[in-house]
Amino acid sequence: MARLSSKIVPQIFLLLLLHKASAILGAEHYSRADFPADFVFGSGTTAAQYEGASFEDGRTPSIWDTFAHSGRTGGATGDVACDGYHKYKEDIRLMVDTNLDAFRISISWSRLIPNGRGPINTKGLQYYNNLINELTSNGIQPHVALIHFDLPQALADEYGGWLSQKILKDFVEFADVCFKEFGDRVLSWTTINEANVAVLGGYEEGMLPPGRCSTRSICPEGDSTTEPYRVAHNMLLAHSAAAKLYREKYKATQNGKVGLSIYIMWFVPYTNSTEDVMATQRAKEFYIGWILNPLIFGDYPDIMKNRAQKRLPAFTKNESDQIKGSFDFIGLNHYFAVFIKDDSSTKRAIKDFYADLAVNFEFPESPAYQYPVMPWALEEMLEYLKQVYGNPPIYIQENGQMTRRNGTLNDTARVEYIHAYIGAVLDAVRNGSNTIGYFVWTLLDCLELLNGYGTSYGLYYVDLDDKELTRYPKLSAHWYSNFLKGKSTTPDPITQLKEKMTISWRQQF
Ligand SMILES: *[C@@H]1O[C@H](CO)[C@@H](O)[C@H](O)[C@H]1NC(C)=O
Ligand SMILES: *[C@@H]1O[C@H](CO)[C@@H](O)[C@H](O)[C@H]1NC(C)=O
Ligand SMILES: *[C@@H]1O[C@H](CO)[C@@H](O)[C@H](O)[C@H]1NC(C)=O
Ligand SMILES: *[C@@H]1O[C@H](CO)[C@@H](O)[C@H](O)[C@H]1NC(C)=O
Ligand SMILES: *[C@@H]1O[C@H](CO)[C@@H](O)[C@H](O)[C@H]1NC(C)=O
């Protein structure tokens, strides 16, 4: 999904260069054969960003549709998106051309079970069966998320969605339907995508659905002091209950894996002062430990408990036992690192997650509409997960470069970024990281939640002015495809590719 655009902080650029000079750099020359044979390379999308057909064949609105139609995404909605509901076969041919092993999708709960619980929508069931069959019959593994920032609006209206523990029963029933109907072909399940960001975006900052926060000029409703902690707690309980169900009822016959995903910016101290170093550690605990400590150790980090006190719900012994170890992999979405400054002295009006955390973020410099290229940050992050969390199996479920969505197919910045980050993954794997897969975000330029149709991450451009929504491969699609077909990444892959590439499309861009 889309991310915050980086603020320009000139002095940070210097810091970044200093850091880089001393830091590990990703492998530069490599080929697919350098990775373990069973390492999975893929790309992905999600229901709300890809499918469109929002009101077709019995689907009801999700909280994403409600949020988009409230005007809070600048008018961009997923009503049509990339029209994947009708065009998936064409897109799977692109995946075959690109030589993907795997493709991430998510299931729109309100398409499959329109009221959130109760009867299954046979048209929705048919769509996901068709999509999954088309993937598997083309040799592409479907990796499926159950929640990707969407939830039936009916459940939000009825009891507040994730705010209520009533969600646990409904979520587990939804998961049960998915495991039962699709689990013979789907071997990788992510219960909730970016649990930490779903919570912060949806209940702390109000910039993701359901758009709740304490600041009334931004959000009509919400309470940032307690809701983010409550919702994350309910998500952990829901995840672990679904994972338990899978283990008890399906694992023996289906033999798939269940995991949870988090978004990680990596954190680097702004200076070497004790305050900034401690603030950086705190940021890791608040963003990563919030979800991973319960999953791996059975409880929240002590520093969160100390700072949030009663606003952070406590796990009962049973809950803790159920959550601890309730995963077969961790999904990581990662794009860049930020520099952390201690901000303990500022008194904040609202006693919320950010007040408890008490840091300032400084964003590294990068060209407009692009992320900074910091592959060393991914290596440090994977090393940290190895050392602190016992080296869990990891799928990097999202990584990729943002650009303007202006029709250029010559996306050299994306090629450079992906090339550098796959090199970083290789270095980490060579040094013992248990990373087992990597997915480029994203296959197609569809809807981005934060930027609508303004920026893009796709390997393929989608022409929204053309009623056929024609897809065109960018340079990055050629690069990724060459890499996946086993060609080694030569010293100057971009020049060579550019020579081969025919830009057959509107030259006026
Ligand atoms: C912090 O210390 C490390 C190791 O001594 C050094 O490489 C780095 O440049 C220092 N960073 C800053 C911002 O001074
Ligand atoms: C806790 O777990 C035990 C054993 O699994 C079970 O007997 C008990 O009912 C559970 N208690 C609660 C409150 O869920
Ligand atoms: C389109 O975006 C690319 C990458 O951000 C940029 O280099 C190029 O100048 C842009 N072209 C136009 C016409 O805006
Ligand atoms: C693609 O962009 C690069 C630099 O961004 C430029 O050097 C090259 O000429 C462009 N190629 C085409 C075919 O436009
Ligand atoms: C490689 O792994 C070893 C052992 O876990 C660790 O000590 C070392 O710091 C790692 N190297 C890098 C570059 O992360």
Automatic annotation (TrEMBL):
| Entries under Gene3D superfamilies matching the protein | Glycosidases
Keyword Cell division tagged: no
Q: Which UniProt keywords apply?
A: Glycoprotein, Glycosidase, Hydrolase, Signal
BP-aspect Gene Ontology terms = carbohydrate metabolic process
Q: Which InterPro entries match?
A: GH, Glyco_hydro_1
Q: Where is the signal peptide?
A: 1-23
**Domain of life per record:** Eukaryota
> Which EC number(s) are documented for this chain?
3.2.1.21
Q: Which GO terms describe its molecular function?
A: beta-glucosidase activity
Which Pfam family, giving just one, matches this sequence? Glyco_hydro_1
Q: Which family does it belong to?
A: Belongs to the glycosyl hydrolase 1 family.
What the entry lists under PANTHER family is as follows:
BETA-GLUCOSIDASE 11, GLYCOSYL HYDROLASE
What this protein is called in its record is: Beta-glucosidase, lactase phlorizinhydrolase
- Provide the species name: Handroanthus impetiginosus
